[in-house]
Amino acid sequence: MAKQEVLTQEELDQYYEGMKKEHLGPLWYDLGHMVTKEPVHDVKPYLWKWETIRAYALKAGDLLEPGKDAERRVVYLQNPSLIERGLIGYGTHTLYAGIQLLMPGESAPSHHHSQSAIRFVIEGEQAYTAVNGEKTYMERGDMILTPAWTWHEHKHEGTEPMFWMDGLDVGLVRTLAASFFEPYEEESYPMEAPENYSTQQFSMGAFKKLNEPAAPDYPSPIFGYKFNRVKYLLDQMTEGDIDPFDGYAIEYINPATGGPADSRIGTMMQKLTSGQYTKAHRHVHSAIYHVLEGTGYTVIDGQKFEWEKGDFFILPPWSRHEHVNTGSDDVYLFSFNDKPVMEKLELEFSEEYKENDGHQRIESTFVPNTDV
Ligand code: GTQ
C-alpha cells in the first residue's frame, strides 16, 4: 500500500489545497518541471526582412531626433513569442537587437549602462562611436564594442543615412536584476584619445607607447573590429578549417585575454561559399543573426528560414540548426550570442544531430508576420 493511501481522498485534497494556500509545494509532483532533462524555454525563432526594418527606421528619421526627442533613434526587434510574457525588447531570453539610425549631422548623447553592447555597421560611413573619449569611425561590416559601463556616444559626420545594429544583453541583465543606467552630465564625454587609436594600435601587430600602462584584461583594449580584417582572415582559411556546423567561422576576441571581445556578448562572422551547407547541431547559447551578404536559408528545428542580405533572425537556445548558401556568391553571416555567459557559468553544452547524415527534415517554411 502506498503511504498516501493512509489518508482518504478528501483528506489528501485538503492537504494539497492547504499547502497551496500556505505557498508551499510538493516536490514529489514538480521536480520534473524544475530540473528538466533538457533546456526548456519559450523562445521561438523569428525572421525580419531588412526592407521592412529599414523603412520603419527611416520613417523614425522624420518623427524624432536623437538627443532632443529621444536618447537614441532605434527600431528594435521584438520576438513575438516573448512579448506574451511582457518581455519588451527581447530577441532571445538574454539578447536584444535594435537598428539605430543617425541622419547626417546628428548625434546621440553620452551615457553608460550595465548592459554590454556591440554595434554592427549595416549602411553608411563617416559616423563614429566614442567609447570613454575615444572615437572609432564605423564602416559597413565593422563591429564596435561598447563594453558594460563604458561611456559611449555616436555622431554622424557623413552625408547619407547611417544604419547599424545594436546588440545588448538586455534580457540577461533584466533577469539578473542588474540594470543600471546613467546619462553623462554633458552631451559629450571629453575626447581624450586620438581617433581610431585602439584600432590602429592593434591593427597589424600590437603596440603601446613606452609610458602607456599595459592593456588591462577588461575591457578589451580594442573597440573597433574592421570587416576587411575579418574578410582577409576568412579568405585565408582552408578546407581543413571548416567547422562542420558553422562553415568558415571567426570569433572576435579580446587580445589581452584571448577570450571573447566582450566579456558577456560573443561575436562571430561566418562565411559560406556557394552551395556550402553545414550540419545540424544545437547548443545552450542563443544568438541573433544578421545577413551581411548573400542568400540562403537556415533550418531551425525543422523550419526553413529563407534569408537574403540585410535580414535578421533569431536562433533560440537548444534548437537544432544548419545553414545553406543557395546563391552564387559568398555568404557572410554576422551573429552575436550569450556563449561567454554560458561558458563562465559552466552551462554551455552542445550536441551534434546524428540522424539523416546530420540534416534535418524540412517540415515548414517560415513567413514573417504570419507564423507567430
Ligand atoms: O546606442 O547606447 O539600441 O543604450 C539600446 C540602448 C542603443 C546605445 C540601443 C542603448 C543604445
Automatic annotation (TrEMBL):
InterPro entries linked to this entry: Cupin_2, GDO-like, RmlC-like_jellyroll, RmlC_Cupin_sf
Give start and end of each Cupin type-2 domain: 99-166, 269-334
One molecular function GO term is:
dioxygenase activity
Q: Where is the signal peptide?
A: none
- Pfam families from the UniProt entry: Cupin_2
Q: Which UniProt keywords apply?
A: Dioxygenase, Oxidoreductase
**Domain of life of the organism encoding this protein:** Bacteria
- The protein's name in its UniProt record: Cupin
**In which organism is this protein found?**
Domibacillus epiphyticus
